[in-house]
Amino acid sequence: MEQVRVIIADNQYLTRLGLTCLINELDDFRIIGEADEEDDLLPLVQEKKPDLIIIDYFQPDHFSVATIRKLQAISDQIRILVISADNNRHRIYNVIEKGVSGFLTKTCDKKEIVDALIAIAQSNQRSFCNKILELILERSFAKPGDECAPTPLSPREIEIVKLISQGLIAKEIARILNLSTHTVYTHRKNIMKKLNLSSSSELVLYAVNSGILQ
Fold first, then answer.
1. Which of 147, 154, 144, 110 is nearest to 129 (CA)?
2. CATH of the domain at 136
């Protein structure tokens, strides 16, 4: 069997170092590159053509959910293993629905990581750690919510909420909507004030419960 060619995409140096040390112990895997931001990752993937990418998408201004979509656009043959500190269940559901090969948290131990690598690379299976499986099961058995009141947001604000809920950062939203980054930040501030929210996770939850995000 040929070695599985791996690229690590994470802004945290210690995380990249730890994964490098772990993977170097495995005979069937070989690291062919590292990236600490999207602008470095995408050309690296196009040049090196890896079999597997390990990424933490939840690193604002470095990687986002949109990064995963861009990787899949490069090649639908690349397997993507997420190892992330993200604890927002709705964003996690969104990433899983993108069809990633696996999802682990940064609290996973060595055995969980190695088992996931082997399952994904050798058996072409999807692999999720216990914490992520619990979230998947929780969603599977959730009861439908009651109808929500109409949203107080404008059409433009709803557009921005949808994009924020998909994990996009301000500069990506600005590019998509042809706005300045400052304008996006202003809209976000007004949205949070209108809804009396204090965090992005609360905003995503509102988007789901109100039907803005399907």
1. 110
2. 3.40.50.2300
